[in-house]
What does this fold into?
Amino acid sequence: MKIGASYPMRELSCSPANVRRFIEALEELGFTHMMANDHVVVTPHDRRDPPLNGPYTDKDSFNDPFVLFAFAAAVTGKIDFVTGVLCLPQRQTALVAQQAANLDLLSSQRLRLGVGIGWNYVEFEALGIDYKTRVKRTEEQIELLRRFWAEPVVDFSGRFHRVHRGGINPRPQRQIPIWLGGYTEPGFVRGAKYGDGFVFAASGENAVAGWERVRLHLQDCGRDEAGYGGELLAIFAPDPQSAADDLHRFRDVGGTHGCFHSMDKGLGDDVEAHIDYIAKCKYLWDRG
It folds into this structure.
C-alpha cells in the first residue's frame, strides 16, 4: 500500500517556506504522495436557502492545487501529487486538460487527478456554472479530458461541450490517472464506471463498506478490478493510532493507497507540529 499525507492548507498560512518544509519532510519520511483538496470560492453558511451543509466556510483557506503542486514539484524529485478532490464541473474542461498535462510533464509524470462533483451551489453560481447539471457535466468532462490527452486534434460534440477540431499542445506522455471521490451509492457507481480509482474520505469502517460497493459496481460494469485503485483519506481519525488502524483495515480488504490527515487536530499554523503528527502516523503504520 502506498502511503501519503494531505497538505494542511486550511490551517497552514500560504507561504513558500511552509510548502517547501512540508513537502521536503514528506520525502524524507518516505511518503509516496501528497494530497490537496480544492475550493475556489468559500462562503458563509448563514442565511442560505436551501441551507449549505458542507464542511467548509469562508473561514477556511484553499490554495489552488495546480499552483501548489507546480511549486512542490520544483523542490522535490520523487513524491507524487494527488488532487483529493478537484471540483471538476466548476472548471473549464480544456483548461483542466492543459493544466494537468503541463503539471504532469513538468513533474515527470507525478500527477494523479482526483475529481468530485462539488456540493456548494453558491460556489457554482459565482463561477457561472449550473449546479443542477454537475453530475452529467462531470461524466462528459472525463471523456473529453482523456481525448484531449490522447489526440492531437479533437472533434467532440456533447451536451456541454463543443470542440471543433481543436486540441492541447503539449499533450502528456500518458493518460493521467483520473480517480473519483464521493460518499453516496450514485458516487460509487460513477467511480466504478468512469474512474481509474476511488478516493474515500471516511472512517475505516465506512471506507471498507464503500470499497466493497465500488468493487461490486466494477463487476456490474464488466471492468477488471486489477489495476483499479482505492485510497482512504483518514479524515475522521482522531489521533495517529486510529489513523494507522484505519489504513491497516483498508489495506487488509485490498485498498491500494492511504493518506494521513493532520488538520482539525488543534495544530494550527505550525508546520512542525503537522510534520510531527504525520511522522507519528507513519511510524505507527510501519509498525503495524
Q: What stands out?
A: The radius of gyration is 18 Å.
